[in-house]
């Protein structure tokens, strides 16, 4: 909810407790991009994953050409890991994903500074 309206969705689309990692996914309506709302939501999801679920690693995968989506993990201090080529069928074409990750040790260092 943003200003009383449902404007997007975010959450863990994968949680692996055996290997202690998770993947965050998000979507935000075009009229709300640039407002900072998804960065705040994603920051809260990091806390939820690292503190409450004691994960060691959290990933975010973004469509490679979606600069606004990629800005979120970059702003939050994630590391770029790789590009997965043509891994999703979206809008009548295959798209590449940029993969970002953050480790628990990096999260703790960022939160304490």
Biggest sheet features: 5 strands, mixed
- Our count of domains comes out at 1
CATH homology superfamily = Gcn5-related N-acetyltransferase (GNAT)
Q: Rg from C-alpha positions?
A: 14 Å
Helix share of residues? 25-40%
Low-confidence stretches: none
Q: How many beta strands in the DSSP annotation?
A: 5
* CATH topology label: Aminopeptidase
Strand order in the largest sheet: 1-2-3-5-4
Shape: globular
Measured between the Cα atoms of the first and last residue, the distance is 29 Å
Features:
single chain, 113 residues, alpha+beta, Aminopeptidase, 5-stranded mixed β-sheet, 3 helices, globular
Q: What is the element layout, followed by pairings?
A:
Blueprint lengths: L7 E9 L4 E8 L8 H16 L4 E7 L3 H9 L3 E12 L2 E11 H9 L1
Parallel strand pairs: 2-3
Antiparallel strand pairs: 1-2, 3-5, 4-5
Could you walk me through the main structural features you see in this protein, from its secondary elements to its overall organization?
30% of the residues lie in helices and 42% in strands. It is an alpha+beta fold and 113 residues long. The protein has a single domain (8-112), classed as Aminopeptidase, CATH 3.40.630. The protein has a five-stranded mixed sheet with strand order 1-2-3-5-4.
